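Appendix C: a fully annotated inverse folding record. The material below is reproduced so that readers can follow the format used throughout the book. The structure is listed first as tokens, followed by the designed sequence.
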């Protein structure tokens, strides 16, 4: 009796969908995959430097120091503007029983209030301009830049105040009254009554700079959104 002439079954050929043994991933394969990409999320490369934006802390501190110095020296400009634009407070001297007495010429005038108001308005304007200039130079935010603007604004305001008092009329009103004579009108020395005006520059600079940063500053990338839009396959692909 002869054996049937049926040929033996062919060897199993791996399907195109089945990985070959040489291509099968090892359970101990190192992470990240070769090429630095994460193919499970739209094949977008994984940026290991994410979160390290900015020029670096040392550079930011140097820039903050430069901003503080430049903004503080702008106080000289504020002081000159204050002396030039401030309303004059008229005084008049009189000799009573051998002693000099100084009076306000206009007892109902509001020039004294205008001295503080002029300084505050000028400080707000200079603070806004300084914030715009800093943002145009470095189009980003950051704690060092904000602190530099605030500290520079305070130093600049103090410099403007003292410079305005020094350049303004004579601070010794009795000596000034003797010099001009009895009944002659002269200007009162500059005096900043509301010391809170020294904070106006810093407040304006912070508000303007934070607003510009929120509107026009760089945006942080979304770590969960793959680069290049919606992936064509894998996790996050649209169904259907």
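Designed amino acids, in order:
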């Amino acid at each position: 009796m002869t054996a049937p002439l049926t040929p033996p079954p062919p060897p199993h050929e791996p399907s195109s969908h089945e990985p070959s043994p040489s291509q099968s991933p090892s359970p101990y394969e190192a992470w990240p995959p070769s090429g630095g990409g994460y193919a499970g999320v739209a094949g977008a490369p994984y940026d290991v430097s994410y979160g390290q934006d900015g020029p670096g802390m040392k550079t930011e501190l140097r820039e903050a120091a430069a901003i503080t110095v430049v903004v503080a020296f702008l106080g000289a400009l504020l002081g000159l503007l204050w002396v030039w634009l401030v309303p004059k407070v008229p005084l008049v001297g009189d000799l009573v029983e051998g002693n000099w007495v100084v009076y306000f010429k206009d007892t109902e005038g509001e020039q004294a209030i205008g001295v503080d108001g002029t300084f505050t308005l000028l400080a707000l304007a200079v603070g806004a301009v300084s914030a715009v200039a800093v943002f145009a130079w470095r189009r980003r935010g950051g704690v060092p830049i904000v602190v530099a603007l605030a500290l520079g604004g305070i130093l600049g305001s103090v410099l403007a105040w003292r410079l305005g008092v020094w350049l303004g009329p004579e601070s010794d009103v009795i000596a000034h009254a003797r010099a001009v004579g009895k009944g002659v009108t002269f200007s009162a020395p500059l005096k900043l009554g509301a010391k809170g005006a020294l904070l106006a520059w810093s407040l304006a600079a912070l508000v303007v700079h934070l607003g510009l940063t929120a509107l026009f500053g760089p945006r942080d990338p979304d770590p969960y959104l793959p680069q290049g839009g919606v992936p064509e396959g894998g996790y996050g692909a649209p169904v259907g």
